[in-house]
Write a structure and sequence with these properties.
By secondary structure, the protein is an alpha/beta fold. It contains 21 helices and eight strands. The termini are far apart.
């Protein structure tokens, strides 16, 4: 130390001060509003920053991570025993809180690094990434965690005033040891926020990993190279391309230009993507169940003879062509207007709690497909019974003709099912849905006119049957009835803000 000081004194002589340059360090535009909206959506934040205690606390206050209504609790200690004692005191004071919170996603926000010494900041269970505090040097990390299934928002614990944990880097390393780890994690997930200051990149990643290990989904957001390890450790990484460079943006799963865009990314685009994906996944299982059950029932009727009820061309075209356009253009579906989603962040809880895709909804789609398949086969057998004779040719119906009638009814049914499941229908959706009908009849007619296939002349004979149209109409109406009942029941007895 003395040698360095002597060298500096020897070099720094006869110098003229010309000026200094620095990067302005301030909150990005609408950062406090974005965090407030996400907290109202039930997202919890853990702020992981390299700042000293005073700076981190002021940043947390200015960006709404810490409010005057919340009690700031500092975790301190120089040994694992002291840290454990401090955590037990907090646990005793807020024991009701620590027992009630069960999160699913946590958000960690980390700020810029600082050379000055500091004390811990606060942490909060949230969905998140890294909070970029300035266009340049304020980097943050956020990790998402959903609280329990109750309707209360983040920061609201049984109607009582919540608390925010503040902890420094050295103390945090002690709290993450085996003696304190479980207690610290339980208190951190129960807190409204957790602010950790004087953090190194490796500790940021370690904290993210710790929360992931207890089953929480984490989203990290940062704008600096010191956030790369945290971004890669989290389930989802969001990088902010700022004046600090693009290391975080290149290492992340998603890249945004400003922190305020995180609100649109989660509340709008995240909501739309979730709703669309949930419907398409369950719809694909539903229509496959419908088609497969018909084959299974036919096998039972024929005493497991191995004969296929469906024509191979029909099977290949069903998932590959006929039902593909409606599914593809379902990406245009909008469950709720963007303005409404931003005005009511609470709607995000439908996404966090998997209201659109869970065991109950999945089983519902499978049961709907089974019921419709059962109705299709039962009515087909009833219509084309052994006493039925073709009015023109005087022959009983063949398997190919019966298959064509049932298959046509199922395809027409899909148009109504997709329309029932859509929230908004544009002209592109109409073209995709209704365009499937002429495409089907044209392709199946061309296929049936090729003499090299066993399906030859089936369609032309079927259109001469006066029973074809009434049979198809009856089959479609009967299969559509359970879907109408299901949607009506949900709208009247299980309504949500999205229905």
């Amino acid at each position: 130390g003395d040698a360095v000081a002597e060298a500096c004194d020897a070099l720094e002589t006869e110098l003229h001060f010309l000026g200094a340059s620095a990067i302005e360090d301030k909150l990005q535009l609408q950062a406090p509003e974005t965090i407030s909206a996400l907290r109202r959506a039930g997202v919890s934040f853990w702020m992981l920053t390299g700042d000293k205690y005073e700076t981190a606390r002021q940043v947390a206050l200015s960006c709404n991570l810490l409010t005057l209504a919340e009690e700031a609790l500092v975790v301190h200690g120089t040994t694992p025993q002291e840290v454990t004692a401090c955590l037990r005191d907090i646990d005793f004071k807020y024991s009701g809180h620590s027992r009630t919170v069960v999160g699913q996603s946590n958000v960690f926000v980390s700020g810029r690094d600082s050379d000055s010494d500091g004390f811990p900041e606060e942490s909060l269970p949230l969905l998140g990434g890294s909070l970029s505090m300035s266009p340049a040097s304020r980097s943050g990390s956020v990790t998402p965690t959903e609280m329990d299934g109750s309707p209360r928002l983040a920061g609201e614990l049984d109607g009582r005033r919540g608390y925010v944990l503040l902890i420094a880097g050295q103390t945090l390393e002690l709290a993450m040891q085996d003696e304190c780890r479980e207690l610290f994690l339980r208190l951190g997930l129960a807190a409204n926020s957790v602010i950790c200051c004087r953090m190194t990149p490796s500790v940021k990643a370690a904290v993210t990993r710790m929360v992931k290990e207890v089953g929480r989904r984490t989203l990290a957001i940062g704008d600096g190279g010191n956030d790369v390890a945290m971004l890669q450790e989290a389930d989802v990484g969001v990088g902010i391309a700022g004046l600090e460079g693009r290391q975080a943006a290149r290492a992340a799963d998603f890249s945004i230009a400003r922190f305020r865009f995180l609100k649109d990314l989660l509340l709008v685009h995240g909501h739309y993507s979730y709703e669309r994906t949930c419907y398409i996944v369950q719809y694909c299982f539903y229509k496959s169940m419908l088609l497969s059950l018909c084959q299974i029932l036919y096998n039972f009727a024929t005493r497991v003879s191995g004969l296929s009820f469906w024509n191979s061309f029909m099977l290949a075209m069903f998932n590959g062509v006929y039902t593909l356009p409606p599914i593809f253009f379902y990406v245009l579906d909008v469950a709720m207007p963007r303005r409404r989603l931003l005005q009511c962040p609470q709607l995000y809880r439908h996404t966090r709690r998997n209201h659109a895709l869970n065991s109950r909804t999945f089983v519902g789609y499978l049961l709907l497909g089974q019921l419709q398949g059962l109705l299709a086969m039962a009515l087909t057998v009833g219509i084309y019974s052994s006493s039925y004779v073709d009015a023109k040719f005087g022959f009983p119906p063949d398997l190919a003709g019966v298959t064509f009638t049932t298959y046509t009814s199922i395809l027409l049914l899909q148009t109504a099912v997709v329309l029932l499941g859509s929230h908004t229908v544009t002209w592109i959706n109409h073209v995709a849905i209704w365009g499937m009908v002429p495409l089907y009849f044209l392709s199946i007619f061309v296929y049936s006119e090729l003499p090299m296939f066993e399906f030859y002349a089936v369609v032309s004979r079927a259109f001469t049957d006066p029973l074809l149209v009434p049979a198809v109409a009856l089959l479609v109406a009967a299969q559509l009835l359970p879907a109408f009942i299901w949607h009506a029941w949900r709208a009247n007895f299980r309504p949500t803000e999205l229905v």
